[in-house]
Amino acid sequence: MQAAAAAAAELPPALFTNASSLEQLVLKSNPGLTGRIPATLSDLRSLRVLSLSQNGFRGEIPPELGRLAALQQLDLSYNNLTGEIPEEIGGMESLSILDLSWNSLAGGLPAALGSLRMLEKADLSHNELAGPLPASMAGLGKLQYLLLQENPIGTAVPAAVVGSLRRLQVVGMSGCGLTGPIPRGAFAALASLAALSLDRNRLDGPIPASLAALPRLGRLNLSQNRLAGEIALPAEFVARLGRRLDVRGNDELCVGRGRYGGAQASYLGAPPCAAAGGGSGAAVGGTSSSPVESSAGAAATAGRGFRVYGIAGMFGGMVYHLLMLSCIPFYDTMF
């Protein structure tokens, strides 16, 4: 079902009371579709796909939606939703894709998220959600995409949770107010991790060289933090990632003399370290290069059922089909 663009209107609650056999409901890209999301949608017990993205819905997410045990995909992105994510969401035991991005949701993340054991993609980005991540999320063994950027998480890097999600391919935590060092070995078990974004936080300390041991890591953004010391990543790793490695905007980072080639040292954007006796790991010659431009926006394409995400400061084009069960990013088009 696709709603036509029209003047401001609301969904009448009675519309869904006699549609129990409906399996897919897609009402997207209708800015004039306003009001609250009807709680009567919970009567659609056969529903597998519910997409209400890019509309003008406001108010809270109805807790009654937690009764949709057969639901596999829920997309409420790009609305004006407020309030907290309801604990009842844990009743969606078949859910594989959850997209609540670009709303004004607030409060903490509910522990009930850990009940979504079929979840493969969680996009909660661009809201007002606070940390910490509930420990129950460590049980999401099928999760591949965790996108939390532009939320005031305000904790240390959630190593205990993220480090337990062995199937993760993409982690986006840009602009989350993360503090402290990047724990050594925090991501060591994530053999499938292809893209890690921790830019625009308040992380300090050195860059763990252990990140280079991740066999599939192809994009790493640590820019615009407070990281310090000599960049100790292996030259082979730096050469392989090229400009997909971004550590700019960390004024206390420096490059060891002779560690990298001239081109590599240039795009790392850090000055050479001080010579022996001049202070170990201290940068020489001022601060790093100008701040990297942030691409925090996300745009919906005109192509039916597709969206292009710009993951803050790192991911240029992650594309997924709204009705697909697995969301595979086209890494060749990212950045």
Automatic annotation (TrEMBL):
SUPFAM superfamilies: L domain-like. It catalyses: L-threonyl-[protein] + ATP = O-phospho-L-threonyl-[protein] + ADP + H(+); L-seryl-[protein] + ATP = O-phospho-L-seryl-[protein] + ADP + H(+). The keyword Kinase applies. SMART domains: LRR_TYP. GO terms for molecular function: protein serine/threonine kinase activity. The chain crosses the membrane at residues 308-331. Its main location: membrane. Keywords: Cell membrane, Glycoprotein, Kinase, Leucine-rich repeat, Membrane, Receptor, Repeat, Serine/threonine-protein kinase, Signal, Transferase, Transmembrane, Transmembrane helix. It is a single-pass membrane protein. Its EC number is 2.7.11.1. GO terms for cellular component: plasma membrane. InterPro entries: Leu-rich_rpt (IPR001611), Leu-rich_rpt_typical-subtyp (IPR003591), LRR_dom_sf (IPR032675). Pfam families: LRR_8 (PF13855). The keyword Metal-binding does not apply. It is found in: Cell membrane; Membrane. PANTHER family: LEUCINE-RICH REPEAT RECEPTOR-LIKE PROTEIN KINASE FAMILY PROTEIN-RELATED, PLANT INTRACELLULAR RAS-GROUP-RELATED LRR PROTEIN 3. This is non-specific serine/threonine protein kinase. It comes from Oryza rufipogon.
